[in-house]
Amino acid sequence: MPLAMAPFGGWGALAAFLSLLRCRGSGEKAFEGPEQLMVGSGEFQFINCTASCMDPKRLVLETALNKTLLESQTQWKLFKVYNISKDEELLCSSTCGGKQETKVFHITVFYPPKQVLLTLSPTTVAVGTLFTIECRVPAVAPLECLNVTLLRGTEILCNQTFVGTTLSPQDAVVTHNTTAHREDGLYNFSCEAQMDMRSCGGGLVHRVSDPQRLEVKEPVPNNQTGIIITIVVVPLLFLVTSVLLYRYWWRPRHN
Ligand SMILES: *[C@@H]1O[C@H](CO)[C@@H](O)[C@H](O)[C@H]1NC(C)=O
Ligand SMILES: *[C@@H]1O[C@H](CO)[C@@H](O)[C@H](O)[C@H]1NC(C)=O
Ligand SMILES: *[C@@H]1O[C@H](CO)[C@@H](O)[C@H](O)[C@H]1NC(C)=O
Ligand SMILES: *[C@@H]1O[C@H](CO)[C@@H](O)[C@H](O)[C@H]1NC(C)=O
Ligand SMILES: *[C@@H]1O[C@H](CO)[C@@H](O)[C@H](O)[C@H]1NC(C)=O
Ligand SMILES: *[C@@H]1O[C@H](CO)[C@@H](O)[C@H](O)[C@H]1NC(C)=O
Ligand SMILES: *[C@@H]1O[C@H](CO)[C@@H](O)[C@H](O)[C@H]1NC(C)=O
After folding, report:
1. 3-class DSSP state of 223
2. Closest ligand 6 atom to the C-alpha of 187?
3. CA-proximal residue: ligand 6, atom 11 (nearest)
4. How far is the CA of 39 from the centre of ligand 4 (A)?
5. How large is the greatest C-alpha to C-alpha distance in the chain, in angstroms?
6. pLDDT in tens, 111-154
7. pLDDT, tens digit (0-9, with 9 covering 90-100), for 67-87
8. Which residue's alpha carbon is nearest to atom 8 within ligand 4?
9. Neighbours of 148 (CB within 10 A)
């Protein structure tokens, strides 16, 4: 999973906080202090607990979350922590030469796009009339790390970035009003959402909506043709029928 690919990037607390908000930052390494990690909601994280000495007495990872020990050496233990659904602090502790050492991992949960919902309304339009393309990406955060692109076939109709620094998940919505062209009926419309958390210790998440077709009808003249047919042809048929009936019914009587 790309979401938990970069588990060991270390920053100072402030630098990490700022990069979290701006989703930028080059990831300067801080040797000491807490480590900042970003994890997609419900994802896992590898934690490497390391002691400063070669023969630590007790090397543990303290967390209420489910974890498994993947690998163990005298100086370090590698854990996998599962199902991280909210911001957490994990604590590695060890005892070296009678002194206790701790290291804190701050885990910030982000909400990658899980669904991309595309709606065309109406789904049937006449050439030259307006229709709306709406793309909704439910429950994502942080929004400023998200790009939403509306596509007709492979052509980009619109792409949008977002502002807002809140870390609580919310829906991202893009609407695009456009006029129907005859060729719109030949392509699939789709919507792509991309969240880039690579600069903050997360991954790159990419999701695409189901394709949607637009049914494009010929414009109003079609209807007029129908009306003309009704007005002209029906009375004509009636007339012809009447004439024929007259001939067949009345001629014998006169004879
Ligand atoms: C854990 O960290 C120690 C010390 O930095 C390192 O030597 C070791 O290779 C790491 N283990 C893994 C599995 O990355
Ligand atoms: C840990 O896993 C067990 C079984 O897989 C589950 O019942 C329990 O709720 C999990 N605990 C947490 C905190 O997720
Ligand atoms: C993951 O966490 C959620 C909420 O904390 C819980 O409902 C779910 O059972 C957990 N799943 C596993 C596999 O532990
Ligand atoms: C967004 O559109 C612009 C031009 O319209 C393009 O240069 C850019 O690469 C697009 N970005 C994405 C993520 O598609
Ligand atoms: C698109 O049109 C709808 C009504 O047809 C309107 O409510 C909406 O604000 C329009 N959106 C944009 C982005 O122009
Ligand atoms: C549109 O999408 C459908 C369903 O995925 C696919 O079968 C069809 O080939 C696509 N058409 C075009 C023109 O891409
Ligand atoms: C969004 O698109 C812009 C322009 O193409 C690009 O610079 C930026 O990296 C993209 N962001 C994400 C999160 O994909």
Report:
1. helix
2. 13
3. 188
4. 27
5. 135
6. 999 999 999 999 999 999 999 999 999 999 989 889 999 999 99
7. 999 999 999 999 999 999 988
8. 159
9. 23
